Amino acid sequence: MALDWGTKRIGIAVSDALGITVRGIPTLKRKTPREDYDALIGLIREARAETVIVGDPRRADGRSSGSSRKAARFAFQLGRHAGITVQMWDEQLTSWEARQALKGRARAPGDVDRMAAVILLESYLEATKAA
C-alpha cells in the first residue's frame, strides 16, 4: 500500500498480492489524527498490506523539508498504531506526473492525490523487483 501524505488529503494505492497490478482507492480526506489512523488501519487490514509506503516530499536537491519531517512523523505513528512496517519513499515529481496523467480530464478533489499514490507504489514495486 502507498500513501501520498498531505495536510488535507491522503492519496491511497494498493497492489495485488504479487505486486503486479496497482490501483488507486478513494482518497482519504483528513480529519483528526486519530480518525485518520483508524481509517488507514482499517484499509491496511482490508487490503492485507504487509508494508505501507509513505511518500517523502523532499526538496529538489534531496534535502529534507518541513513537510518531509511531518510525513516521517506521520509514518512512524501509523506504523506504531497499525503494528506494520511503514517505509518512507521518495515522491519527488509524483504530483506533477499525476497532474500530467490526468491532464484534459475532469478531476474531482483527491484525484491527483490518488494518482500520485499509484505512481509512488509503482515506483516502489519497480525498484524492489530490480533489487
Compact description:
This protein is α/β, with parallel strands linked by helices and 131 residues long.
Query: CATH class, please?
Result: Alpha Beta
Order of helices and strands: EEEHEHEHH
How much of the sequence lies in strands comes to 15-25%
The figure for the number of domains is: 1
Distance between the termini: 19 Å
How many beta strands in the DSSP annotation? 5
**Radius of gyration over C-alpha positions, nearest whole angstrom:** 14 Å
SS-based structural class?
alpha/beta
Mean pLDDT: 90
The CATH topology turns out to be: Nucleotidyltransferase, domain 5
Helix count equals 4
Question: Main beta sheet, described?
Answer: 5 strands, mixed
- The second-level CATH architecture is 2-Layer Sandwich
Low-confidence stretches: none
What is the approximate shape? globular
Strand order of the largest sheet: 3-2-1-4-5
Helix fraction by DSSP (H/I, runs of at least 4): 40-55%
